[in-house]
Amino acid sequence: MALRDPVAVYNAANNMEAQLVRDALTASGVEAFITEDLSPVGTWIGGLIPDLHKPQVWADRADVERATPILDEFERRAAELRDARAKDRAGEEPIEAVCEECGGSSSFPSAQRGSVQKCSHCGAYLDVGGEEFDEDWPEADQDEDEEA
User: Fold this and answer.
1) Among 17, 21, 49, 104, which one is least packed by beta carbons within 10 Å?
2) In which region does residue 62 sit, left (phi positive, over 0), alpha (psi from -120 to 50) or beta (all else)?
3) What is the pTM for the complete model shown?
């Protein structure tokens, strides 16, 4: 059913958050629809221009009072999750990575584990906290040469 007097009740950070909010509202009996951000408009070389095209959740003006406590609960739970993640990351030790180009050692926050960063000494790219491989492990090329 279409909304008679639609009003944006929530500006989401991304399309996924908009879906979650809409699902929470509809599960509570509030009819809601979303407008997703599917266009590249607002994108420039530095990223997205904030507040140009944000996903929104829409509901009927008559349902705003019923939607407000649901939205407040959603925001409270989202804040709790963010705080819990921040506490988990704060307890982790920094990662030391050694550059293959210059041999210099650089320290990175644990949140950057598994990423590629620039060496602070020479600017070369290095893997931060990647998987360690056994030096005795045979290379794929060596296996193929032995079989031939």
Assistant:
1) 49
2) alpha
3) 0.54
